Batch of 2 targets.
Target 1
Amino acid sequence: MTAVVTATEFVRNFSSYQRSVQVEPIEVRSHEKVTGYFLSAEAFDRVAQILAASRRRYHPSELPEHLKAAIKDARMGAEHEHLNALLDD
């Protein structure tokens, strides 16, 4: 669950939110629009690790089996079927 606070409330009670963020992330809004999220250092580190892992590059010989299978089983969406005609030339 994520706590939701206004930017004004967040600024006025920052020290309180420093403690709260250890339990759950805090969504900060201004004029009913999300302006950002306040995360604990631990949560931020987890997000950073997930992003880093998702951006890892592999040489084809290093691909894990689950990625090889995903590539092998991948199919083009029907909305792109018209592109096959370009290969006929």
Note: The CA atoms of residues 81 and 87 lie 11 Å apart.
Target 2
Amino acid sequence: MVHLLAALSWEPQIKGALYVAIAVAVLCGSVQLLLSTNLGARMGFQAAAAGLFGFLTLIGTLWWVYAIGPKGTAPSWQTQEVLAGDAVEGIDVGPAFPAGWKALEAEDPDVADAAPVVGEALTGGEEGGGVFSTASDYVVSRAYETGGGTYGPLGLDFRPFDLFHEARYLVVEVAPVPPEPAEEAAAGDQAAGVEAAADQASPDEASPDQAPAAGDQAAPADQAGGGDQAPADQAAGGEAAGGEELADSYAVVMVRDLGSVRLNPAVFTIVSFLLFGLFTRRLHLRDRRAMAAAAEAARAEAEREPAGAGA
């Protein structure tokens, strides 16, 4: 018992589950108990269940219409392919690219929504191994989209009959960030080294014995400039994360997955409605049997009365 109480105080999810279970047992159970004492156990349960699933059907309908409650999978962009170089020759989805596509700005909300997908496709996500090491190694140059329209059966392309969707595609082109020229990087490092050496040994404060030679003074500058020379040359070479040479541009082709936001509310509503219909049907059949039995009893009583009067 002590361990049970300790588990309840340590794990808040268990408390939440117990709260829901107790609330359902008290509220629904009290109604079912009251109906059972007045209508009988079987009929009381059926009446309580019919009321419960009728209420759940109304709740589920609101969830279904407004896409709230227990939602399904949210819409998202799915990567189809990553093209290197000129994307005009490699894109084979939708109309002719880019003539039949709509141009988008880099700040467009759709482009911003697809930015994480583009980053994962180009960098490889957490596993790595992509074209770029990080998302800061490239910039979005342009974007295009096409499709996404709706249509209905028999040419009824208007609401509420436009239930079908055309495939929607988005192409985001990126370009590698231009590396800093090696000569400018080396000159900047050398100037920084000279300034650091001048600060350490000022002519006014240094004694003749401690004054460094001209060759010794230039050494820190050369050393500071040469320390970052190799990375600068490597960055200027434009190599990908895997060691291959970077292309001038890359294009990420994506298709819109509409998801299933209303799937869970729809299943919940349909199941609740079927159970509501089942219990109300059983109550209806019980009423019909009761009315048939009452009519038979009244007919038998009517047949006995003339016989008794004639005797």
Note: The CA atoms of residues 45 and 194 lie 91 Å apart.
